[in-house]
Amino acid sequence: MKNVLRKTTCLFTSFSRDHRFPPILRILSLTDVLCPTVSTVALCAALCLLVAVQADAVPVRHKRDRTPCRQMEINSQLAIRFRGCVTRLRDSIPVDPDDQDLPTLFPSLSQTFNQRDNLTDEGRLVWVENQLMMFRELLVSSRAEGGWDPELMRKLQRVIDYTRKIILAVRVAATMLGITLEHSNSTPPSPIPTADPGMDTDVRHYLLIRDFERVVTDVHHQFNRLVRSTCDIP
After folding, report:
1. Whole-angstrom Cα distance, residue 54 to residue 13?
2. What CA–CA distances, in Å, run from 118 to 14, 56, 124, 183?
3. Are the beta carbons of 132 and 219 closer than 8 angstroms?
């Protein structure tokens, strides 16, 4: 009996090193050395499942199998988390949000919002991508200028990274809807943050993030509208 067990163990050990087999089977074969009975049962179950999958008896769902409706829902959830990330950065900047003397960094931003009313799905995605790309450039420029303390810099970097993730989500959504995004090469609404060198650094940072939060909030709104249109929600 011991010889049989020893031969079986050697067989499973050599099997575990064979990279032609799936990792799960190789892992299970390694555990067989420690617990032969339990591992053998688990290995048999894994083999049966593998055979069933290969025979299309068990459906395997991949991320790329998402429907446009589901993808828009995921994008909307991402936008919610993104907004929270931006809000935390804004609230961490030492500026009184109730200060009535705070200047307007982007006076033309409201006009920009008005231009995206009554858009098609394609126009909606183009507008969202352009706004995100534009503000991402501003955030990267602000990071390069400095003036952020280490904790705020960490949060700023997280916002920049998240912006890239949302831009990717927009492009995935466009692909699923059969839309080709045409970049408008839009420039930031004037004045840009560096236009007033006499402005306090914290105030400039606060205004940039505050206005970006407005954009992110609207991005979430646009994703919700895409959810309704792709999921046939009235």
Report:
1. 24
2. 64, 45, 9, 19
3. yes
Distance, CA of 95 to CA of 210 (rounded, Å): 11
Which SS3 state, helix, strand or coil, does residue 151 take?
A: helix
Alpha-carbon torsion angle 217, 220, 224, 226, nearest 10: 120
The model's pLDDT over 94-151, given as tens digits with 9 standing for 90+, comes to 998 888 778 777 777 777 777 666 678 888 888 888 889 989 999 998 999 888 999 9
**Class of CATH domain 63-230:** mainly alpha
Q: Quick check: 172 and 222 in contact, CB under 8 A? A: no
Q: What is the DSSP letter of 105?
A: S
C-alpha of 18 from chain center: 36
**CATH 1.20.1250.10 residue ranges for the chain:** 63-230
Structure tokens at 78: 């991402």
202 close to 148: Cβ distance less than 8 angstroms: no
Q: Residue 75 is which amino acid?
A: N
Contacts of 228 (CB under 8 A, 6+ apart): 234
CA-to-CA dists, residue 83 to 52, 79, 214, 224, angstroms: 43, 6, 9, 14
